[in-house]
Amino acid sequence: SSRVWRKPVDLRPLWYHRAPNMRRFAASTAHVAPMPFSWTQRVAEMDSLAAMGNVAGVEPLFHSLIAEAPGRSRFLHNMVLKACANSGDTGKAAEWFARMRERRVGANVKTFGKLVEAAAKSGNVAEAHRWFEVMHADFEPTDVVFCAMIGACAQAGRPQEAVAWLERMEVAGAKPAVESYGSVIHAFAKDGQVAQAVDWLGKMQLAALQPNDVVYCSVIDACAKAGKPGEAVAWFKRMEDQGLRAEVTAYTSVIDAFAQVGQAKQAAAWLRKMLEAAMEPNILSYNSVIGACARVGHPGKAIAWFEKAVAAGLEPTAASYTLVIDACGRAGKVDEVVSWVEKMQEAGLVLDPAVFTSVIAACARSALAKDAVDWLRRMTESQLQPGEPAYSAVVNACGKAGQVEEGIAWLRRMAAAGCRIGIRPHTSIVSAFARMGDGDGALAWLDKMERDRVQPNVLTYTCAIEACGGEGEDSAARVEVLLRRMSGAKVQPDKVVYAKVARLFGPSSGVLELLRNQTSEFAHSLGNDSGYITMPRRAKVGEDLARRLESSRRPLDMSPGMTFKRVLRQEQSGLPRQKQMR
Q1: Mean pLDDT of the chain, nearest integer
Q2: Cβ proximity of 492 and 535 under 8 Å
Q3: Backbone torsions φ then ψ of 226, nearest 5 degrees
Q4: What is the 3-state secondary structure (H, E, C) of 471-535?
């Protein structure tokens, strides 16, 4: 009797009591096992994969979700197209659009926008323009689509087309955003046009748009590609003055600016600044420093920075190995070049055309013509098409080895392969004639160059002078003809030409007198628009050498083993040649 009755507590949710339909639904699905992830969770996962451009990961989720919600077909198809756009897979995007048509799924603005973005990401301007026109037939293009078209031109390195699309965007009534101007600046930066990139940054500010760090990085990158490290540093500091934090890309662009001009110490110093700023350099940052060491021919330093990148936990890319190979090749260390090629293969990396070209160039620097030809054949056996640099290196190897006929044969193969034949392979052939002492062959090849409308440069003429300046009775006359021909072609002689003529004929010869007169004519012509082909500081070098030769008071004891500078030093000191050499 002491027990009190209490109403039992109902633990079922409130919706169970208020919604009869929900009660019936719960009863009908009571036997179904719960899903590990809800539909919304899987859509979120699909969107995350699409943002990363992971098409292979998005496709299985699409097939599972479309079966549960066929009414969301267009939404899910657009999600796959988003993955294709972020990966730049134009072919896959077109394939999924065709599936949409087959399933009679209607396309909207987002659909075509993703198709344009996919083509833009890969830099396929023609394909992006085609999808834009298809879209324009049914829909009004959005700001995002116009920005994608500008980005496509930027990716393809077509700055003028990017400007045209920005103007078309304004005519259509769309307001360009920071990204639109940033893409135009990036287009000029990719082509190394610093002045135009800076000009468009000013236009962006006049449009009341504040440049972000990406825009400043594009300007810094333009300075890097133009080989202007001082301007790159100035824009880096200007970005910091605007309160923007310099990211890894900005530091890497400054490092690359110094690397482009071969200033390895400054490039390494900026990498250290990057580390001091608590930034983690990526493999591109290290590659720029390795490339700077390669440009100045320091393989030891290049290998040291390669090892530092590995010690930092970074995985070297094919470009990393290629730059080390190039550094060893520039130093003439062919054995180390082959060793690094083997290391690259052991790392599971595929040898690309750049690697083969670097190896062939290394063989050419050491005059190993047979090895250069063997590596070119290995390149073709690897189903890779040799380009102009590879063929030029083989011709150069034959030229340095004095194999004229082989060099000419490879030059013809180069033309048959459809490669553009520039000045370098022609100069290699003239150099081969010079090594054989065949002046007639060198002059005949110069005539051929003129018939082929290839303008010889100062190095080509220098090799021809070497070929004609032998011990023949008419050698002086032939070299004088070459010098007049050089003057008529408006090619300026440099200090190497002076040294070679002085070594061949002596400082009191008529040939050198003719060269002095030409030097004074060049110096006089530099003040007007004469059209002469000039190189930095070469006119001043020529004047200094001519003045020093004029001040000579006795004949110089020239020998084939002495450089022109050493002979001048002998003249100034008054010591005998043998004592001066010691």
Answers
A1: 81
A2: yes
A3: -85, 0
A4: CCCCHHHHHHHHHHHHHHCCECCCHHHHHHHHHHHCCCCHHHHHHHHHHHHHHHHCCCCCCCECC
d(CA 513, CA 209): 63
104-161: pLDDT as tens digits: 888 888 898 899 888 888 888 899 889 888 888 888 888 888 888 888 888 888 899 9
Q: 349-359 as b/e, with b when 16 or more CB fall inside 10 Å?
A: bebbbbbbbbb
Q: Is the pLDDT of residue 438 over 60?
A: yes
Lookup: tokens for 216 = 């400043």
What is this structure's pTM? 0.69
As a whole number of angstroms, the distance between CA 485 and CA 541 comes to 21
**Contact between residue 326 and residue 300 where contact means Cβ atoms under 8 Å apart:** no
Tokens of 85: 């756009």
Ramachandran angles phi, psi of 40, nearest 5°: -65, -40
Task: State how far the Cα of 151 lies from the Cα of 123, in Å rounded to an integer.
Answer: 8
Task: Tell me the C-alpha distance between 426 and 451, whole Å.
Answer: 13
Residue 79 confidence (pLDDT) above 70 = yes
- 300 CB contacts (<8 Å, ≥6 apart)? none
Beta bridge partners of 533: 491
pLDDT at residue 229 in the model: 92
8 A C-beta contact, residue 227 and residue 260: yes
Taking only Cα atoms into account, the Rg of the chain, rounded to an integer number of angstroms, comes to: 34
* Residue owning tokens 């690309």: 352
* DSSP codes joined into one string, 242-288: TTPPP-HHHHHHHHHHHHHTT-HHHHHHHHHHHHHTT----HHHHHH
Question: Could you tell me the two tokens for 479?
Answer: 């070299």
Query: CA-to-CA distance for 319 and 327, rounded, in angstroms?
Result: 12
Which residue, among 354, 365, 350, 367, has the nearest Cα to 324 in the 3D structure?
A: 354
- Distance CA(245)–CA(19), nearest Å, equals 56
Which residues touch 570 (CB under 8 Å, ≥6 apart)? Answer: 556, 557, 577, 580
| pLDDT at 440 exceeding the cut of 70 | yes
Which amino acid appears at position 408 of this protein? I
Local structure of 553: helix, strand or coil: coil
**Confidence at 297, pLDDT banded by 50, 70, 90:** confident
Distances in Å between the Cα of 252 and the Cα atoms of 129, 131, 178 are 33, 35, 23
Q: Cα separation of 133 and 10, whole Å?
A: 63
Percent of the chain past pLDDT 90, that is, above it, reads 34
Residue 72 carries which DSSP code?
G
Q: In this predicted model, what pLDDT tens digit does every residue of 317-365 receive, in sequence order?
A: 999 999 999 999 888 899 999 999 999 999 999 998 999 999 999 999 8
pLDDT at 576 over 90: no
